Amino acid sequence: MTREQLERIIATWQERLRLRDWDVKISVHEADSENDAEIHVHDYHEQASIRLNPKWVDWDVGLANRVIVHELLHIHEQETKRPVDQAQNAMTKPAYEMLWGWYVAGRERWIEKLAQAIVDMAGAVE
Question: Which of 53, 54, 61 is nearest to 36 (CA)?
Fold first, then answer.
């Protein structure tokens, strides 16, 4: 996988997922993470950064598409995350930690399933 291929995959999926107005940057993070990638959606308008595991250069096209779609779906997920973030002020710390744990586990499962389904239906970007 080259950086040019990855950038083409990101640009195509931004268009397909109706995120064309977003400025999405990519960078590489240290290999101590077991995640393929992480996204940070910035507080300012329509900007996000995706941090890739250094092993991204070894990804095949299918994996690259699934990872990128997964991370871009987190942008759409931000609206559902806000109420959970706000609950922190209304709950005890143990209750909030339990709620947050359930939320994170659930969102990762549905985003992963949805990313796979979307790539399967729309086709991987070469």
Answer: 53
